[in-house]
Specification:
By secondary structure, the chain is an alpha/beta fold. The chain has two domains: about 180 residues, Alpha-Beta Complex (Spore Coat Polysaccharide Biosynthesis Protein SpsA, Chain A), CATH 3.90.550; about 35 residues. It is built from five helices and ten strands, in the order βββαββαβαβββαβα. Strands 1, 4, 5, 6, 7, 8, 9 and 10 form an eight-stranded mixed sheet that branches. A two-stranded antiparallel ribbon has the order 2-3. The protein is globular and about 45 Å long.
Length: about 220
Amino acid sequence: MELVSGVVLAGGKSNRMGFNKAFLRFGQQHLIERIVATLKEVFAENILVTDNPELYRNLGLPVVTDIFPGYGPLSGIHAGLVYTNTPYIFVVACDMPFVTAQFILFLLGQAAGYEVIVPQIKEQVEPLCAVYHKGCLPVVEARLKAGQYKVSGFFQAVKVKYIAQEEFSYIDEEDKIFINLNTRNDLKRAWHILDREDRNWRKISALRFKELKKDLKF
């Protein structure tokens, strides 16, 4: 994917969780490893934005820090736009374990002619699982310099495509894509989904193995 880079935002303080959730064990991987692996399925270039770069050096991708520290996710998006080499970036928060390559590719398919491509669930937009064009950079930088840090606050100044849930309803359990792990209750819900997926995967794998074995006449 030569026109788009992946950007992971790992700058949150995890105050409500009480520990650095990026390194939470989630299935066979840490949460951050799961998200990075998903981005690597799609993009040749990926970076991670954080205010603690030393923690993430072993992930096998460039780690950068905010140019405007202290302004939350908007400053992370700004850094992603500055430090990547592609016209577009796909941004995802480090606590969204169910974002899939299929959904990312769906969003990218909507990008032509727009500067922001953002999912919308009813009235709620999801700016930390969205696509941004470098054309946003001057507007984002101006807002940061003015001390304005709401991510969606600059949307009125650029060309935005809002993707309603109905448009990606064909993607299996699309509502879980936007689960982010802010509290321990969120974590319990995510673990429940992960356990269900793992059990389903084992069933499907067993069935496919039986079919393969039959085809090969073992």
